[in-house]
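User: Show me a protein chain along with its predicted structure.
Assistant: Here is one chain, sequence first, then structure tokens.
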Amino acid sequence: MRTLFSDRTDAHSLIRRGRQDIPSPWPANLGPRVLKGLGRDTPFLATDLNTIRDRYTRLLQAMPGVQPFYAMKCNPSPEVISALAAQGSSFEVASFPELQTLIGLGIDPARVLYSNTVKPPAHIEAAHAAGLWRFAADSGGEIQKLATLAPGAAVYIRLRVDDSSASFPLSRKFGAEAAKALILMREAQRVGLQPYGLTFHVGSQCVNPLAWAAAIGVTGDLMTDLAAEGIQIEMLDIGGGFPADYGDGVPSIGDIGRMVTSSIDELLPYRPTLIAAEPGRHLVAEAGVMVATVLGRDVRAGENWLYLDVGAYNGLMESLQTNNAWKFPIWSSRPDHGVVPRLPFTVTGPSCDSSDTMFYGEMLPSTIEAGNQLYIGGAGAYSLSYASSFNGFGPPATVFVG
């Protein structure tokens, strides 16, 4: 279920009432009073599209000349995609069904990158027939697949780079060493593909701007080697990894942008025609607030437990992926939140599975009880896209403002 509020609705008048004290960061249009006033059945994910537009604008300002290709796996909601398309964003997909979603929203496949390096053959063939012309690869087998199923297509090779500064490293599964990438570009040219570009990814939620500088340096050395063989790339895709702020302090997009810009100017032998990026989390995470209702409270072996109607399996999977280390800014509907003493709570989901537990030691009002709402900020990324109907508890509904 999706609800989209326009400027003419009651929801917008609710938003204009302002916000009460809440943790930072938080979407300006989704303060606790607004969320409670929406009157929706929980759980639901509320998303402020204006926050997404703001993040997109700031990214452009931080990295002049870089074209964003939104990684739609992060949040594939049509409302999010349409808002970004209107801002001028291009898009990145990892499957043909994702491309079909974009086509259904009027997005030209020529504006799309297919950055999954190992693709189902049927997906390659269908995407190529639809007009998508740029495909990633990091192995000889994928080059052969592309030559057969997408003849003449442009190929960009994914490099393996240091991603040790990221919360979610990716290099074990993806990426070729520079020496192998050189061979793959030669092979692409030999089988009739266009050796179009190079790409890398420093890992999701990367907190070290130097990671981009190091990766761009590796790319620059490879570009020099390729130029010596007569191959000049047209695209450098610096991938994603740009962090969202969950309240624990991360480099600003301005800090990262300055590092990226100076590295491109200083470490590349020439500037490719297209400098691409694949932002995801940075654009959408802070725009979303998950709204859940407390189903019950108990004390078990001296430990305070809080049971919600949303859990890891239907909206908060990243808590399990990080062994419950992932932190979100959290507030509640309690009028005395921020006034009464707080207690540590173990916060768990609604399913009959003990591993469906999101937070340990979460400091919440001592007065919180069944029927109160919990507001989980920073929930706009990898919540809907991971959500399942495990144990009969379906994905959260969606509400959009802005």
